[in-house]
Structure formats: structure tokens, C-alpha cells
Amino acid sequence: MIKTALKILLVEDYDVDADLITMQIQKIVENPEVKIVDNVEDCKDKLHNFVPDVVLSDYNLPTCTGLDILQVVKQFDDNLPFIFVTGTIDDDELAANTILSGASGFILKKHMNTLGEKLKPLLKKVVFNMLEKEELREKIRRNKIAVNQIYQYLDDINAENEEQRISLNKIRANIESITLEKDNAADA
């Protein structure tokens, strides 16, 4: 079972298929958060407001095709994994076009009873990439913290140098006033 919580956007127009796909996902992912849409506009909204880790999409939808959804997803984030779960892609050329268009894979709905088994390696790859990116983000965060600490140290040194300049100028002024007082006392 995949322990990492996944946000999954499911683009599916049939409620029964959406329920079956969601049940299969729940068998392989411990804490999935699945949002279901069936058109381009709702997909755009969920991409921006839900920010999924992966998109699963049917190919034939009432108002568009899966390739339209894929195009919207790739415009949003070219690296967002996209998997077709469809009954339509029996045509080898169409299947090849989906992959060439940027889909990460596809699974036929006729394999719905084994969808979890077929989906698991694809979702594991998604999780692996997420964790790899998270590790990179953590390194970047730590580097930014280090750079900020260096900048703070340099600012502190500059501030200390400025304080030292001011102190030196005060000492010089005091020395000059003492020297002037001595000269005036010697003249008197």
C-alpha cells in the first residue's frame, strides 16, 4: 500500500466508473484525496485550487476529449503526471498519440477489476518523483537559510564596522579636543 497521501484529480463523466476507480485507488493508496470533474473548466479550477499530484482522465467526455484535458494539464504544469483510464483507447495509434502528447500512461477500463494492480506502479512512480522533488525542495530551503544567515552575518559585520568607524571618529574627536585643550593650556 502507498503510504504517502496523494491528491488525485479524476476526470470522469460516469458516476459508476468514478466510484469504481476511487474504490480501486483506496485499495492501493492509504490516504487518497480524490476530486472528480467532467469538463475543462472544472478541471482548470481544480488544478489551481486543489493542485493535484496526479491526474487520471477518461478519454471520451461529454464536452471535450481526454486530449483536451491533457493539454490543459500540461499548460498548467508540464511535469504533472497524467494517466488515461479509459475504455476508448483500443486503437494502437490513438494509444501511441496519447503517450506522444505527454500522458504518463493509460489503463483500459475493461481491466477495472485489476485497475489497482495496473495503477499501483504508476502511482508509485508519482510518489517517488514527489519525494525526490521534496528532497530537492528541502535542500533549496536549507541553502536559502544558509545564504540568509550569511547575509545577516555580513550585515552585522557592516553594522559593527560602522559602529567602529563612529567610535573611532569620536575617539579622534576626543583626542583632538584633548590636544587642543593641552595646546591652549600650554599657551596660557
Q: What's the overall geometry?
A: rod-shaped
Helix segment tally = 5
- Helix percent reads 55-70%
- The total of beta strands comes to 5
The average pLDDT is 84
Briefly note the structural class of the backbone. alpha/beta
CATH class: Alpha Beta
From the 3D coordinates, which CATH architecture would you assign?
Answer: 3-Layer(aba) Sandwich
Largest sheet report: 5 strands, parallel
In angstroms, what separates the terminal alpha carbons? 98 Å
Coiled coil: 154-188
Modified residues (4-aspartylphosphate): 58
Keywords: Coiled coil, Phosphoprotein
InterPro entries: Bact_response_regulator, CheY-like_superfamily, Sig_transdc_resp-reg_receiver
Keywords summarizing the entry:
188 residues; alpha/beta; Rossmann fold; 5 helices; Sig_transdc_resp-reg_receiver; Bact_response_regulator
